[in-house]
């Protein structure tokens, strides 16, 4: 990013979002470098995500704004939108490929933690539906542990328990690979135990195809395949003793 402490750019960031967004787009169309310029590492997109203006955010992204830039505090655009509770802005960012599991520079927060802190249940569910990891541990806690910590007045114990149960269920039924493997692992073990090893190998082959598609960028941006998932796939290959498949798996570790 091109860092700028130019006063004119600073005031453009501060005041542009109270005016007609078409004027902003017109200025950017004339000078695309505005999308890359920053003031104290804050881009136009991050400024936009500090307002509840999804059309502005969408227009900036369509013109080339990079969604995963971090400001000096280590927050990206999705973290700001999640923290403020701007659901429609979060939808635009996630549909554009924003990473719901990105952790801030100081390893204290991610978007799901911030939404949970502020009791933004709908945004939490949205993030989980796009692959956010509810079980991710940051500084010894998960987002469930910290749910509603900032909300005033505090949630009643029954309300807090109900919200946590909703999130837990959504995560267990959602797309995150950790949960998918927790469901598939027993099934594959049963297959092997019952003598249906060939069926388990077929399932493992499908997993390898999914990893290969992910590596080529041919899956949706919200898809997440991490090192632990690849390692589990590798160990399953060892269990099945399929030598040619094992060699293929090693290529992706």
CATH fold field value of the largest domain: Serine Threonine Protein Phosphatase 5, Tetratricopeptide repeat
Count of the domains: 2
* Helix and strand composition category: mainly alpha
Taking all residues together, what is the mean pLDDT?
A: 79
Question: What's the number of extended β-strand segments?
Answer: 2
Spatial shape? globular
Strand arrangement within the widest β-sheet reads 1-2
The top level CATH class name of the largest domain: Mainly Alpha
Helices and strands, in order, run as EHHEHHHHHHHHHHH
Provide the helix percentage.
55-70%
CATH architecture of the largest domain, by name, is: Alpha Horseshoe
- How far apart, in Å, are the first and last alpha carbons? 32 Å
Largest sheet: 2 strands, parallel
- CATH-assigned homologous superfamily of the largest domain: Ankyrin repeat-containing domain
Low-confidence stretches: none
Tally the helices.
13
Quaternary structure state of the chains depicted = single chain
Produce a short descriptive summary.
By secondary structure, the protein is mostly helical.
């Amino acid at each position: 990013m091109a860092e700028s402490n130019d006063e004119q750019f600073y005031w453009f960031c501060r005041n542009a979002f109270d005016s007609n967004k078409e004027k902003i787009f017109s200025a950017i169309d004339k000078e695309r470098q505005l999308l890359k310029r920053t003031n104290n590492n804050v881009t136009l997109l991050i400024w936009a995500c500090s307002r509840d203006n999804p059309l502005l955010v969408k227009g900036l992204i369509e013109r080339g704004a990079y969604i995963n830039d971090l400001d000096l505090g280590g927050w990206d655009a999705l973290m700001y939108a999640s923290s403020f509770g701007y659901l429609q802005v979060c939808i635009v960012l996630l549909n554009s490929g924003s990473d719901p599991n990105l952790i801030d520079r100081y390893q204290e927060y991610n978007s799901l933690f911030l939404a949970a802190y502020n009791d933004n249940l709908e945004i939490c569910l949205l993030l989980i539906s796009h692959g956010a990891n509810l079980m991710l541990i940051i500084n010894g806690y998960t987002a469930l542990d910290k749910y509603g910590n900032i909300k005033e007045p505090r949630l009643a114990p029954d309300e807090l328990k109900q919200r946590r149960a909703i999130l837990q269920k959504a995560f267990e039924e959602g797309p995150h690979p950790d949960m998918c493997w927790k469901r598939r692992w027993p099934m594959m073990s049963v297959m092997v135990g019952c003598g249906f090893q060939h069926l388990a190998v077929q399932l493992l082959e499908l997993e390898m195809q999914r990893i290969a598609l992910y590596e080529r960028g041919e899956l949706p941006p919200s898809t997440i395949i991490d090192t632990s998932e690849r390692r589990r796939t590798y160990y399953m290959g060892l269990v099945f003793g399929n030598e040619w498949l094992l060699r293929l798996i090693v290529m992706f570790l």
